[in-house]
Amino acid sequence: MNFKNNLKRYVLSFLPLFIFLVTPSCRDCDAFSNPSSYALGAFYDKNNPTTAVNITFESINGIGGANIPQLSNQKILLPLKVTERQTGFSFITSGLADTTYIDYSTSVKVNGPDCGAFEQFTGLGVSRDPSQPGQSSYSGVQGALFDSVVVVNNTVSADTINENIQFLIDICDADIKTASRNLIVTFYDIKTNNPRELQFTSIHVKGRDSDPIYTDADKFSTINLPLESDTTTVFEFRIGEDDSDPNTITQELKVRFNNSTVINDDETGCIFTNGTGSVTLVSNNVEGDNFVFPIDSIFQRMEVDRKTVNTNPDFPNVKLFN
Questions:
Q1: Cβ distance 195 to 188 under 8 Å?
Q2: Is 214 among the domain residues?
Q3: Fewer CB atoms near the end CB (10 Å): N or C, the chain?
């Protein structure tokens, strides 16, 4: 009998808590009563921190997780793992990538009988290295997408206005510097694989013989060829006066590319969101990175060496072997 009475008192003592947890609210909670597990991130120009950067990502993923879409305002909701105390995220653009790790702590908070209890995420910190504790900010490394990552609010809430983390990108100043559109081409000796100087009667955009880029007055091992349009440019290399001369040899270099690649500037390290990238070659309607041609051609081999167009001549986009 005593056991039954004690059991009854025990059950009755927890009945209010049970009702509190399982009974729906009689009133609507406000939108921010139960903070979510999504940290709000946003992207800004390092040189103008109030200016949001509109950058297109090929993917944003929680490491080992599904792709995370950006919001209509270009911000991003980063899902934090409830069962862990750190979540990593990868950011991949058409030309650059980066990884950020977010540390945090959680605690259960009771928000009253109408809104129940929730898991509160606080103490947000960021790091490049998952083995290092999260900090209020960190500086990026050379060649990475983010110049720095900063925690501006270390407590997660349920709105999409108050940002938790800002990703700062060193955007190139368009008034000072523009993305290069000059394809870097280097000539190589096909036997030694060493650079060699070559001379041509004319190097020009196909159809513009009368406006050559280089003539027989020029002799270089590395040249710059200006890309035109936003997708394809065809260049001609000619040895001989014109096509009516049976001794004239002409060979095409057809290049495909885009002007929407995210790249680091070779000289300053700043970032262009409209860089030229995805460089490939086309021969006989076949697109690729490496082509072999007959022995009587000017070039017996063409190959892509660097996919993004930049300014350092030590890293040519295309190698032409003669």
A1: yes
A2: yes
A3: N
Q: How far apart are the first and last CA of the chain?
A: 103
Q: What is the rounded CA–CA span in Å between residue 16 and residue 24? A: 13
CA distance 224 to 60: 35
Instruction: Say how many domains are in the chain.
Output: 2
Look at residue 23 and tell me if it is in a domain: no
Picking from 118, 142, 169, the residue at the C-terminal end of a domain is 169
Over 50: is that where the pLDDT of 18 sits?
A: no
Tell me the per-residue pLDDT of 200-233, one tens digit each, with 9 for 90 and over: 999 999 999 899 999 999 999 999 999 998 899 9
Does residue 33 surpass a pLDDT of 50? no
Q: Which two three-digit tokens encode residue 53?
A: 């950067």
Picking from 149, 198, 224, 184, the residue whose alpha carbon sits closest to that of residue 305 is 184
Tokens of 182: 């000059």
Measure the CA–CA gap between 76 and 274, rounded to whole angstroms. 22
Among 198, 250, 243, which Cα is nearest to 222's?
A: 198
User: Residue 88 sits in which domain range?
Assistant: 30-169
Question: Hey, what are 291's tokens?
Answer: 């082509």
Instruction: Kindly state the DSSP code that residue 268 receives in the 8-state scheme.
Output: T
Q: How far, in Å, are 65, 102, 156 from residue 164 at the CA level?
A: 21, 11, 7
Q: Which residues contact 196 (CB under 8 A, 6 or more apart)?
A: 187, 188, 189, 221, 322
* C-alpha–C-alpha distance, residues 274 and 263, integer Å: 8
Distance CA 231, CA 138 (A): 38
Local structure of residue 246 (DSSP, 8 states)? T
DSSP letter for 160, please.
S
- Residue 270 tokens read as 């700043």
Of 169, 198, 228, which residue is a domain's last?
Answer: 169
